[in-house]
Amino acid sequence: MQTAAAVADFRTYPLISDLANVQVHSDQLSVQWADGRVSPFHHQWLRDNCPCAQCVYSVTREQVLEIVDVDDNLTAVSAGIDQGFLSVEWRGGHHSQYDPGWLRAHAYDDESRAERRAAKPKSRLWNSDFELPVFDYAAVMQEPNILLQWLLALRDGGLTQIRGVPTEPGSLALIAKRISFIRESNFGVLFNVQSKADADSNAYTAFNLPLHSDLPTRELQPGLQFLHCLVNDATGGESIFVDGFAIAHALRSEDPEAFQALCEIPVEFRNKDRHSDYRRLAPIIALDAWGDVAEIRMANFLRGPFEAPVAQMPLLYRAYRRFIAMTREERFRLVKRLNPGELWCFDNRRTLHARNAFDPVSGARHFQGCYIDRDELLSRILVLQRQTAARPSQASQLAYLTAFTSQNVGAGLPARGPVNSPHIPGKKKPRSSRDWIGAQCLV
Ligand SMILES: [Zn+2]
After folding, report:
1. 28 C-alpha vs ligand 1 centroid, how far in Å?
2. In the prediction, which pLDDT does 441 show?
3. Does domain 19-119 have CATH number 3.30.2020.30?
4. What is the pLDDT confidence band of residue 50, given thresholds at 50, 70 and 90?
5. Residue 114 C-alpha to ligand 1 middle, in angstroms?
6. Does domain 134-378+430-436 have CATH number 3.90.740.10?
7. Considering only CA atoms, which of 127, 190, 166 is closest in space to residue 331?
8. Cα of 96 to ligand 1 centre, how many Å?
9. Domain residue ranges of the chain, discontinuous segments joined by +
10. Cα(218)–Cα(155) distance, integer angstroms
């Protein structure tokens, strides 16, 4: 018999219920939990998820085993409960032990799957009376718990504001990097939003900009967009937002045919200048694996001519006109002026943004912006939650660190994750603010 110590996940899994009983059937085990739930686990699934140090590399916590290398007639010789863990002996001599918290978190009986589906973070849809979540710059920079609250508000509501941000050009990079890597584009790492004579986008004029997402011309639109106000002395130029998910949701119930057309008929978006030519053909509304709205792609000023089957063209125009008309409806629109030292951070793949025209003669107006991908936001949230869950007190944090550094956690011990160094704002010296400025600064 081969027995190797279990390799812990980076996350911890709460013990929701003890294991009460295990029965071995021909191709699966039937696990009964102390709270009465019964979860079947196929032999193949269990063998595939063996956490032992032969099957998982202890340093990366990534799987080494490929299930195709295991006999497809795989069977469990015996199974039982050993010190609270599910213990399985495989024909051929491998031995596996499963943490009950982990097992429950991954059980795929109908009840467990429905529970997990219900726990999936849900978008909180909003309209014109949205209570804007506002956070304080210093708190976000210094307190991991406030940082987490901000990121959760972004994930679920898609629009937030931060106040008290320094107005020195480049300051935006510090707060953006509180989440993760900034995504560079042809507009730079940080882009400057000001009117300029040689504009390479309508954003860099004083025009009114209709509601849009940024970079719909890319395969992956940036997930988060920041807009930081340094100077705003000009008349006009108010920011306008709509929750694209709320509009899609309303369209789905008010005009299902139009909704379906926007989910299925691709539209091309283009952005070109003397040095680049970006194009992306994709539907305006994208759904996720559960059929929920996951993305809006929209910028009328970057749209190419429609190219759809002749029979579908009238429907596409009807649906497109309806969507744009809805973005103009007062019920969805939030209009606010951004003052120096304030910044917007919003989900660019959800919250459409616009700007009223401003009068460049009346005063200076200078915003800086940048992008971060949604993956970075979601990963940061999970790591912050992992750290919060893992560190109830200073004393247990020390014990925790010790458990991790003793390499593999032995079978029979509760699974523990590592302690990552907390991100300390300002610890790593940023490059000078000039380094972050991609587009030409005209102020
Ligand atoms: Zn194994």
Report:
1. 17
2. 24
3. yes
4. very high
5. 29
6. no
7. 127
8. 6
9. 19-119, 134-378+430-436
10. 21
